[in-house]
Amino acid sequence: MPAITRDEVAHLARLARLAIDDAELEHYAAQLEVILDAVASVSQVAADDIPPTSHPVPVVNVFRDDQVLPGLSHDEALAGAPAVQDGRFRVPRILDEDAADR
After folding, report:
1. What is the DSSP string of the chain?
2. Residue 49: what pLDDT?
3. Is the per-residue pLDDT at 31 higher than 70?
4. Which of 18, 36, 44, 91 could form a disulfide with 13 if both were Cys (CB 3.0 to 4.6 A apart)?
5. Which residues touch 5 (CB under 8 Å, ≥6 apart)?
6. Residue 1 predicted with pLDDT over 60
């Protein structure tokens, strides 16, 4: 008896809102059967003395410590701006005036 039936694949397809014809149902049911068999094989090999892992090789956190470094001064930041107004970057309006008032 297959671990997943054609009707179960059809049910999953309906839940996922996938339009699958009869040939595809048979195709996917067969593929899922192979996948479930492979998972069952791996489960048989996994022993209690082997801890579960999420990655095949050890993963080490590579983040560095946060360091506060000096940044640009206000004038240095504005020095490269194409337009400045009242000590701020001047940028073109991207919203129409009606949208900005809402």
Report:
1. --SS-HHHHHHHHHHTT----HHHHHHHHHHHHHHHHHHHHHHHH--TTS---SSSS-----PPPP-------HHHHHHT-S-EETTEE-----S-HHHHH-
2. 80
3. yes
4. 18
5. 29
6. no
Is residue 3 within 8 Å of residue 33, measured between CB atoms? yes
- CA angle 94–100–102, rounded 5-degree value: 145
CB 81 within 8 A of CB 89: yes
Can you state the angle between helices 22-45 and 6-15, rounded to 10 degrees? 100
Among candidates 10, 31, 35, 30, which has minimal Cα distance to 21?
Answer: 10
Residue pair 74/68 in contact (Cβ under 8 Å)? The answer is no
What is the mean predicted confidence (pLDDT) over 27-56? 85
